[in-house]
Design a protein that fits this description.
Oligomer: single chain
Number of helices: 9
Number of domains: 4
CATH superfamily of the largest domain: Efflux pump adaptor protein, beta barrel domain
Structural class: alpha+beta
CATH architecture of the largest domain: Beta Barrel
Radius of gyration: 47 Å
Strand content: 15-25%
Distance between the termini: 26 Å
CATH topology of the largest domain: Elongation Factor Tu (Ef-tu), domain 3
Number of strands: 14
Strand order of the largest sheet: 1-10-13-12-11-14
Helix content: 40-55%
């Protein structure tokens, strides 16, 4: 309507003035309701053509969209293990700090595993004490075996010396028995030494490895025990939380609730503009929005990012071929908007729907000397008609409460 009025001031209105005052035609006489088209056909035709041209220029170079949303992140509240709820620490809509417990599962099985691992460590320590005692006992047996060996060896040497001096004085059978006894006593020394080495190896290698394994099992059991308590990963607000003590919770089922983080750093609006605006939308463009949760307010914004793909064109690998007809519905170009000034989105409720205008700025191009006259005039027109779109947004901001509260019956 605004474009039509502006174009009529340049076409129909001058045509009417010419026919009224230059040709002397009067309303109600020569210019009637039935002769309007014939009398003002030039102005009406020019008005319609200029209106269509102006609307095309405005909406192409200064795109607008109603598909604007203040998205926010939600975190599902799910445990890492399955179990039965034993204790609940919060209620729905409670504020929780980072690291605060939300609910706890029954942990009897995990506590038993922790106690079992702890007892295995105690058992390993006791086995080390026994191994040290075995080493001490092996030392005693080695000394005892050495003493017996030396005694048998001395007796053998004595009888061999007597046999050497007086052959036949000692029976050969006695000497052979003593030789066998010495060899047996020597084997006893080797056996006691091997027992000591086995005890030392057990004390230095086997038992420490068993203790380390028990300590690792204890650490793992403690981790599993810690998983039975669900903590808040970030500070936020608990919503849709309907757990009761005794409920069985499974991480593969629906979440127990949602945690809405208190994020203030990500203050962005996401807007979906038409695909025809792909060549116009640029990072750094100025924009304006008005939101339903903060009516009668125009918020200056700036384009900070433009996705170089359209979500409607995605596909997932499956066992069925993709039919292009299934994605015939055209998608939009996702654009990210941030407030131009600090605190621009204060008062805008997260999840709110908004209306956005983006404005093309050709100031740098116009400052260049390489632009021809015709293009320079066209760029001036493009920048000038942005005010029309800005007026439309302000009219929409004024009519939004009326449309919502009065016309829509809400």
């Amino acid at each position: 309507m605004i474009e039509l009025i502006l174009c009529s001031l340049l076409t129909v209105f001058p045509d009417y003035l010419y026919r009224r005052y230059a040709q002397g035609k009067r309303i109600g006489r020569e210019i009637t309701l039935y002769s309007v088209w014939f009398e003002l056909r030039v102005g009406i035709t020019a008005c319609l053509m200029l209106t269509v041209t102006l609307i095309t220029i405005i909406f192409y170079h200064h795109p607008a969209t109603h598909n604007v949303t203040y998205f926010f992140r939600t975190i599902p509240i799910v445990p890492e293990v399955s179990g039965r709820v034993a204790e609940i620490f919060v209620k729905a809509s409670d504020e929780v700090a980072k690291g605060a417990p939300i609910f706890k599962l029954d942990s009897s099985t995990q506590q038993a595993a922790v106690e079992s691992a702890r007892l295995r460590i105690v058992e390993a320590d006791a086995a080390m004490v026994v191994a040290r005692a075995d080493i001490s006992g092996s030392d005693g047996r080695i000394q005892q075996a050495k003493g017996a060996y030396e005694q048998a060896l001395e007796e053998l040497q004595t009888k061999q010396e007597l046999q050497r001096r007086n052959p036949g004085i000692v029976a050969t059978r006695d000497i052979e028995k003593l030789q066998n006894l010495v060899e047996g006593r020597q084997g006893g020394i080797m056996t006691a030494t091997a027992e000591k080495q086995a005890a030392e190896a057990k004390l230095s290698t086997l038992l420490p490895a068993q203790k380390a394994s028990a300590e690792a099992a204890l650490a793992q059991a403690q981790v599993e025990l810690a998983k039975t308590t669900v903590y808040a990963g970030v500070s936020g607000r608990v919503e849709q939380f309907g757990l009761k003590v005794g409920d069985v919770v499974n991480p593969f089922m629906r979440p127990a609730g949602l945690l809405i983080p208190n994020e203030t750093s990500s203050r962005q609006l996401q807007a979906g503009f038409g695909q025809i605006e792909a060549q116009v939308m640029k990072v750094g463009m100025a924009a304006e929005v008005t939101c339903a949760s903060k009516p009668l307010t125009i918020i200056p914004m700036v384009v900070v990012d433009v996705q170089d793909f359209i979500a409607a064109g995605q596909f997932r690998i499956s066992d069925q071929l993709v039919d292009i007809q299934q994605s015939a519905k055209g998608g939009t170009i996702t654009v990210f908007l941030e407030p131009m000034y600090e605190g621009g989105l204060n008062g805008v409720t997260r999840g709110s729907s908004c209306i956005a205008n983006a404005y093309t700025n050709n100031h740098e191009l116009l400052a260049s000397k390489d632009v021809g006259l015709a293009r320079r005039v066209y760029l001036h027109v493009v920048d000038t008609v942005a005010i029309v779109h800005a007026m439309i947004l302000r009219v929409q901001a004024l009519l939004l409460p009326v449309q919502t509260l009065v016309l829509a019956g809400h």
